[in-house]
Amino acid sequence: MTNYTKLPAILLLADGTVFYGKAAGKIGTTTGEICFNTGMTGYQEVFTDPSYYGQIMVTTNAHIGNYGMHKDEIESGSIKIAGLVCKNYNIIYSRKEATESIQDNFQNENIVGISEIDTRALVRHIRNKGAMNAIISSEITDLQELKKQLAAVPSMDGLELSSQVSTTEPYYYGNPDASYKIAALDLGIKKNILRNFDDRDIYVKVYPAKTTFAEMDKWGANGYFISNGPGDPAAMPYAIETVKSILDANKPMFGICLGHQLLAEANGIGTMKMFNGHRGLNHPVKNIIKNHCEVTSQNHGFGVIPEEVRKSDKVEITHINLNDDSIEGIRVKGKKAFSVQYHPESSPGPHDSRYLFDDFVDLVKGKLAW
């Protein structure tokens, strides 16, 4: 399958900055918003995370592909990133359990990338200039043509993308004889979230993104989960209405990442596009309710507006980011609803925040209240 040659490739940013490197993956052209992830491992989970849909991923770890690809280490049914930028693109892999190389995987899934560039310089540039659109090509060398194509790419600000990655039909996950049932709104849900519910004796029914609360309520779930996903939460009135309906019914509810932002929107708290966002495995977050710190995995380009959260009489802050004081968790006063901006299900890790699934189960069981 591997038909790899070190053809030249170009990365062009929206501000006109150009990087020259070598082709990786499929020979072709791709566009998207460029962002970077600081994780030292877990590239396969990153590639298949639906929250990265529409984004070109820059990996800061120097070697990508060195432990190959494994079918059991994916977060969705396919690669979701729009393209890859890396320094060393390792086709030969060392792990015996791997089922294919990164090159074979990328070719099978039509993913275009670029390697052998100075990712340190690129990340510093993005960090200083902010997230922006970009284009990668290993087939077009004319910069004017690339600029023309790049100019037609819409901004992530205002884009509704969850309905493009969500399931089209409801499906079940876990043991039908489990003690409790959770209805999950799939806005780009990761498989490891479902695994964490299954591990806690929870049977999950996963619904398409635009499913109403009335439709989900017919199943008789004991609680509701609002998933992570890509795009601008403010461009998702359908999901905001669903969250409002769950709140009005006072059902137990837990949201992660995009689900956190939607819970804020449903309580009249605005969201914003961040300058760079948080993406990596080492973000320090303080649980101000329990007074302890946890190292977290994060992946989001939007966030809730801190000033509006602090002024709100509907929610209280539960978690804050110790790097920039952004709001990482809230719970709704007088309701059975809470959310976090980060990923407690993170795989391969860290696992500091897995207790949040236990908190949700306790909320469903009636053992937790505030």
TrEMBL record:
Enzymatic reactions: hydrogencarbonate + L-glutamine + 2 ATP + H2O = carbamoyl phosphate + L-glutamate + 2 ADP + phosphate + 2 H(+); L-glutamine + H2O = L-glutamate + NH4(+)
Region (CPSase): 1-180
Residues that, per the record, bind L-glutamine: S51, G229, G231, L258, Q261, N299, G301, F302
GO molecular function: ATP binding; carbamoyl-phosphate synthase (glutamine-hydrolyzing) activity; glutaminase activity
Active-site residues from the entry: C257, H343, E345
EC class: ligase
Coiled coil: none
Example GO BP: glutamine metabolic process
Keyword annotations of the record: Amino-acid biosynthesis, Arginine biosynthesis, ATP-binding, Glutamine amidotransferase, Ligase, Nucleotide-binding, Pyrimidine biosynthesis
Residues annotated as domain Carbamoyl-phosphate synthase small subunit N-terminal: 7-137
Signal peptide: none
Pathway this chain belongs to: Pyrimidine metabolism; UMP biosynthesis via de novo pathway; (S)-dihydroorotate from bicarbonate: step 1/3; Amino-acid biosynthesis; L-arginine biosynthesis; carbamoyl phosphate from bicarbonate: step 1/1
EC number: 6.3.5.5
NCBIfam families xrefs: CPSaseIIsmall (TIGR01368), PRK12838.1 (NF009475)
Entry similarity comment: Belongs to the CarA family.
Complex formation: Composed of two chains; the small (or glutamine) chain promotes the hydrolysis of glutamine to ammonia, which is used by the large (or ammonia) chain to synthesize carbamoyl phosphate. Tetramer of heterodimers (alpha,beta)4.
The protein's role, per its UniProt record: Small subunit of the glutamine-dependent carbamoyl phosphate synthetase (CPSase). CPSase catalyzes the formation of carbamoyl phosphate from the ammonia moiety of glutamine, carbonate, and phosphate donated by ATP, constituting the first step of 2 biosynthetic pathways, one leading to arginine and/or urea and the other to pyrimidine nucleotides. The small subunit (glutamine amidotransferase) binds and cleaves glutamine to supply the large subunit with the substrate ammonia.
Name of the protein: Carbamoyl phosphate synthase small chain
Species, as recorded: Pedobacter insulae
Gene: carA
